[in-house]
């Protein structure tokens, strides 16, 4: 099993290549994607912040963001513990509507003993994403 920091580096490298199947292969079957008890972005209906369950839910997230044009996706720092990893990422993207979003995000991942991702959440400027959402 890889350490969570190494796995997160693998995830970001796969994302940069557009290799979504490689990311999904690292997800547990029952992954909890963007599961929050009270999230304003979800309440506002931001499509890419919606709660999803399982690998199919994670795949649906990537389908939602597939039309985004990324100008910048820069991993600035990775922090980790025995079962969690956090990536600090700077993004600059254009939505299909033509709206441009520049933000700094925190990506939180939790891993099981087998090294699979069991939970994922974005921490970002919710107001920017609500304003940009269709």
Describe the structure.
This protein is of the alpha+beta class. The protein has one domain: Nuclear Transport Factor 2, Chain: A (Roll). 32% of the residues lie in helices and 38% in strands. It is built from five helices and six strands. Strands 2-1-6-5-4-3 form a six-stranded mixed β-sheet. A hairpin with a 3-residue loop joins β3 and β4. It starts with a helix and ends with a helix. 16% of the residues are buried.
Strand and helix map with partners:
Blueprint: H1 4-17, H2 20-25, E1 27-33, H3 40-43, E2 52-53, H4 54-65, E3 69-80, E4 84-94, E5 100-111, E6 117-123, H5 126-132
Parallel strand pairs: 1-6
Antiparallel strand pairs: 1-2, 3-4, 4-5, 5-6
Helix content: 25-40%
Give the termini separation.
40 Å
Structural class: alpha+beta
Shape: globular
The spatial strand order of the largest sheet comes to: 2-1-6-5-4-3
Largest sheet data: 6 strands, mixed
Q: Would you tell me the overall average pLDDT?
A: 96
Question: Which architecture does the CATH hierarchy give at level 2?
Answer: Roll
The name of the CATH topology is Nuclear Transport Factor 2, Chain: A
Which percent range describes the beta-strand content?
35-45%
Q: Which CATH C-level class is it?
A: Alpha Beta
**Model regions low in confidence, pLDDT < 50 over at least 5 residues:** none
In total, the number of strands is 6
Q: What is Rg?
A: 14 Å
User: Structurally, how many domains make up the residues?
Assistant: 1
- If helices are DSSP runs of H or I spanning 4 or more residues, what is the number of helices? 5
Order of helices and strands: HHEHEHEEEEH
